[in-house]
Amino acid sequence: MPVATLSELEFTQFQKLIYQLAGISLSPAKNALVSGRLAKRLTHYGLRSFGDYFKLLSSGQNDDELQVLVDLLTTNETYFFREPKHFDFLRDQVLSGHKPGQNFRVWSAACSSGEEAYSIAMVLADHLGDAPWEVVASDISTRVLDRARTGHYPMDRIDGISGEHLSRYCLKGINSQKNTLLVDKKLRSRVSFMQINLNQSLPALGVFDLVFLRNVMIYFDQETKRQIVQRMLPLLKPGGHFLIGHSESLNGIVDTLRPLAPAIYGKR
To answer: Which of 37, 41, 190, 231 is catalytic?
Structure first.
């Protein structure tokens, strides 16, 4: 079967659909990316065109395939202790003022394959030990969440982890698991992973001392950013902290958060 090409009209259809499903804005420059990632689904179903695949998605009879589409068209670049100054802030500014015995909760709101959530957990374990604390980690992609729950990573993904954290919280693979590491079971038990679409009403999650929403808003337009942040703010405790990516900004989006440091905000 000849390789199908993605027409401008077909691209626009997928562009609108992923915006409706996930709030993600795809520029026309992403045509090749969309074509490349969705081509395997045409093969899977034996379809001749991207238009036929769009009809399948629009039929209302295959919600599972809509999730596959979201998984394929979301970008999941992450690594341990990314943007390390945020973890310094957590350790030196936030945890230093935390009262022992109070449950400390962090939401990693676009956790991808889990490296951010486990990085947070390592810092919390360092400073809070067996005291009550937890990390809630969410993403829209079921595919990356399945990987995150395992806590199992190739060794070439660990550059950001200190030697001390490696020895304390990670197990080195041997034999068939050589060149991999496994996050320690005790640490994994403090991190709960769940699928959440930030572009929809949020489930009952409780309130958090700290929210990480990093390196995901670059995929949203200004109005979608505003709606997502407004949806999340009631879940942040007064005096809590809201962290975004260093390439992102909340200018013109919210006025109830005050900037404290680059990409770090406090709730008034």
So the answer is: 37
CATH architecture of 84-267: 3-Layer(aba) Sandwich (3.40)
Domain spans in the chain, listed from the N-terminal domain onward: 8-73, 84-267
Active site residue 139: yes
Q: Put residue 114 in one of left, alpha, beta given phi > 0 → left and psi -120 to 50 → alpha.
A: left
CA distance linking residue 43 with residue 100, whole number of Å: 56
Which pTM does this prediction carry? 0.92
**Other Cβ atoms within 10 Å of 54 Cβ, number:** 18
Single out the catalytic residue among 71, 82, 105, 139. 139
226 a catalytic residue: no
E strand intervals along 167-235:
170-172, 180-183, 191-195, 208-213
Instruction: Enter the CATH code of domain 8-73.
Output: 1.10.155.10
Over the chain (268 residues), the average pLDDT of each successive run of 10 is: 82 96 93 94 94 93 90 88 97 90 95 97 96 97 95 92 96 93 97 96 97 94 95 97 95 92 94
